[in-house]
Amino acid sequence: xxxxxxxxxxxxxxxxxxxxxxxxxxxxxxxxxxxxxxxxxxxxxxxxxxxxxxxxxxxxxxxxxxxxxxxxxxxxxxxxxxxxxxxxxxxxxxxxxxxxxxxxxxxxxxxxxxxxxxxxxxxxxxxxxxxxxxxxxxxxxxxxxxxxxxxxxxxxxxxxxxxxxxxxxxxxxxxxxxxx
Amino acid sequence: xxxxxxxxxxxxxxxxxxxxxxxxxxxxxxxxxxxxxxxxxxxxxxxxxxxxxxxxxxxxxxxxxxxxxxxxxxxxxxxxxxxxxxxxxxxxxxxxxxxxxxxxxxxxxxxxxxxxxxxxxxxxxxxxxxxxxxxxxxxxxxxxxxxxxxxxxxxxxxxxxxxxxxxxxxxxxxxxxxxxxxxxxxxxxxxxxxxxxxxxxxxxxxxxxxxxxxxxxxxxxxxxxxxxxxxxxxxxxxxxxxxxxxxxxxxxxxxxxxxxxxxxxxxxxxxxxxxx
Lengths: 180, 276
Hints:
The structure holds 2 protein chains of 2 kinds.
Chain A: H1 31-47, E1 54-59, H2 65-68, E2 80-85, E3 89-94, E4 107-110, H3 113-125, E5 131-136, H4 142-154, E6 162-165, H5 169-178
Parallel strand pairs in A: 2-5, 5-6
Antiparallel strand pairs in A: 2-3, 3-4
Chain B: H1 16-32, E1 47-48, E2 52-53, E3 59-64, E4 70-74, H2 77-89, E5 98-102, E6 107-111, H3 118-128, E7 131-132, H4 139-142, H5 147-159, E8 165-167, E9 173-175, E10 185-186, E11 192-193, H6 195-217, H7 226-233, E12 236-241, H8 247-259, E13 264-271
Helix pairs in contact in B: 2-3, 2-6, 6-7, 6-8
């Protein structure tokens, strides 16, 4: 027939050179190997974690039991701004806490955009020279505190000017009056 | 008209190239992979715009669940093993009982005859288990159960509200709770101690030890200040708090970290996008 016999079977063409070594094909069937390769690739692709969690870096001051009872660091009256976090809304007032502070001075804002706008205007009013005291009431959740810190980030307030402190009894009393 | 003969082409393809690519990808994934850890501690993370990523290795993670349970985990098997050995040699955890779980009574039965090499076994289990699920006092008992038993028990305690008891040799029965023991004891000299304080403090000591060893081992580091060396190994403290946890609970956790002389934390958050 018209086919060329390329196979090495049969010793028909033994000829001049005597015995010739059988020429084996160097081709290997790679299909199983590829199969296995892709199987492993899929496995590793599915089990791997690429996403590292995103984080918010926070520095906390060292605990010093003796100074803790004192009011927070000395900051000018005009530059300080207080934020009190409750479960669903934020209370805020300017300046330091004093006996003269009235219930009307404490204002209320929503979380997220509400307090963000307040922070922006307060920051502008003080020419970026602002110290923020964040005071979380017991009713506030961790998520709310993170939200607040996040707003600080968004407003690009220097993190060194932000302090997380305890709300004072005076403030708590005023808030109670306010919410009557 | 002569028939047009379509030449029959071979269906064989040259797979070499495909094989090359497959194995290239394979090697890449094998080398870059870091297995997803089984992270059964379910936490609803708060959101923030901050997009700093946590370093991939060498972290210490403190998780606080919605119910206020605190869990601790250390990255890396070697570090965990070192930590376990430290805690045993310093007697912060003690192997006092041998434990078996009785699934009928849902009790972990304890006996005081401790078989040989049990401590080595517990240390090995500690190094294989990413999370510390129970208080340090109960940890040596807990780690004697198999991994499957622990996973199943933890799940049942937290989701199905099972009570699992520890039965001591004198027939005293104590309920087993998941999460670290958060009670703080004041030692003499105003020092405070709790599970969390101990774990944080001693995992930081590991960094210092390691730095010491590298400083001794390689002359290249001779000119590097020790503190820098410690910093380079520095494990970061990541806090995975549930956003619905009342803030006072988080304050306690942070208080414990402060007592362990740690002042820099990374709050793990989900990324949120700002609407403009």
